[in-house]
TrEMBL record:
One Gene Ontology term of the molecular function aspect: glutamate 5-kinase activity
NCBIfam families: proB
Residue ranges of every copy of the PUA domain listed in the record: 284-370
Organism of this sequence: Luteimonas salinisoli
The protein's name in its UniProt record: Glutamate 5-kinase
Family stated for the protein in its record: Belongs to the glutamate 5-kinase family.
GO terms for biological process, alphabetical: L-proline biosynthetic process
């Protein structure tokens, strides 16, 4: 038994996000240490061998940069100094992780604006999906070199929860330096009891999580629970486990958890459909023929350009739009979804085959006007 945590079996999953913080990577004398990273990388490789996909959200750039210049930068140092260390350390961090894998790793740096702006959000999602199709390991971090304090995502726990929703993950794995969640801080209270399952969040539970955990990182168990709460709202389960224990990671690769499992508030599909149904739509609509409407309604198909008859209004890529079907009785709403192309672009590719998109526009955001994952029937 690990820290009083019994073993529980995780449900099947296909895609996950793994968050690894600075406390697991920072070396005692500065820089990055393979001490814990080797077993974490082994977990990622075991998942890939089983046909699963993992996106890694990794801290450690500032720690790596600090070792390069031998700087002792305080947590409250001017942001420009911390940004400079992050810029120095990013290349080191990528090289560090690449050393554990034969397949390529790919750096993806995101900012608050990338995730707030719907078009950039879609671009980030498309890039991550393409990297996974190419069997690369995406390594995500906040783009600290251009972020400003008032627009920072806060910490990589929050970023990991956002990325989990971005890539439609089923589970968010958060590696910590303790065995899981307790009902009190186990470093201060020897009688603290393990919390193996969180079915719902309460003020008492969040208070028990406390504050920051180590000098190397920016967040403790509280930020991890906040991230788990965010993920739960998107229909994603969260697993908190001890990333310093190779035996825990070996078991986790076989869906055996010794740690804390946080249940999602609702199913991932229900959370996604709720957002699609309630997000405000832009004025205008995409008008489709009967065949395209039938394909969406009866087969759950994406909307392809060949089925588009007309476009109303002037919306942009990434906007929520109404989809209307034109038949002998007029036009009726049939669905709503996130448009992969602007109204101007759709007018140019309407009634054309998907393979002609790039020749017509000079670029290609995919073969569908509205992908079925971004579409809900009305």
């Amino acid at each position: 038994m690990t820290g009083g945590f019994g073993e529980q079996v995780l449900p099947p999953w296909r895609r996950a996000v793994l968050k690894v913080g600075s406390s697991l990577l920072a070396a005692d004398g500065g820089g990055l240490s393979p001490r814990n990273a080797r077993a974490l990388a082994g977990f990622v490789s075991a998942c890939a061998a089983a046909g699963r996909e993992v996106v890694l959200v990794s801290s450690g750039a500032v720690a790596a940069g600090r070792a390069i210049v031998r700087a002792d930068t305080a947590v409250d140092a001017p942001i420009a100094e911390r940004q400079a260390l992050a810029a120095l350390g990013q290349a080191q961090l990528m090289a560090f992780w690449q050393g554990f894998f034969e397949r390529p790793v790919a750096q993806v740096l995101l900012t608050h604006d990338d995730l707030r702006n719907r078009r950039r959000y879609l671009n980030a999602r498309a890039t991550l999906a393409a990297l996974l199709r190419q069997r690369a390991l995406p390594i995500v971090n906040e783009n600290d070199t251009v972020s400003v304090d008032e627009l920072k995502l806060g910490d990589n726990d929050t970023l990991a929860a956002i990325v989990a929703a971005l890539v439609d993950a089923e589970v968010l794995f958060i590696a910590t330096d303790i065995d899981g969640l307790y009902d009190a801080d186990p470093r201060l209270n020897p009688g603290a009891r393990p919390v193996e399952v969180v079915a719902r969040f309460s003020a008492g539970l969040l208070a028990a999580a406390g504050g920051a955990g180590s000098a190397a990182g920016t967040g403790g168990m509280r930020t991890k629970l906040d991230a788990a709460q965010r993920a739960a709202g998107a229909g994603i389960a969260t697993v908190l486990f001890n990333g310093t224990r190779a035996d825990v990671l070996e078991g986790l690769a076989q869906d055996r958890l010794r740690g804390t499992r946080v249940h999602p508030a609702r199913s991932r599909m229900a959370a996604r459909k709720h957002w699609l149904q309630n997000a405000p739509a832009e004025p205008g609509a995409i008008v489709v023929d009967v065949g395209a409407a039938a394909a969406m309604v009866e087969k759950g198909a994406s909307l392809l350009p060949g089925g588009v008859l007309a476009v109303r209004g002037d919306f942009r890529r990434g906007d929520m739009v109404e989809i209307r079907c034109r038949d002998d009785d007029g036009e009726q709403p049939v669905a709503r979804g996130v448009s992969q192309y602007s109204a101007t672009d759709i007018r140019r590719i309407a009634r054309r085959h998907s393979r002609e998109i790039e020749a017509i526009l000079g670029y290609n955001y995919g073969g569908s006007v509205v992908h079925r994952d971004d579409l809900v029937l009305v």
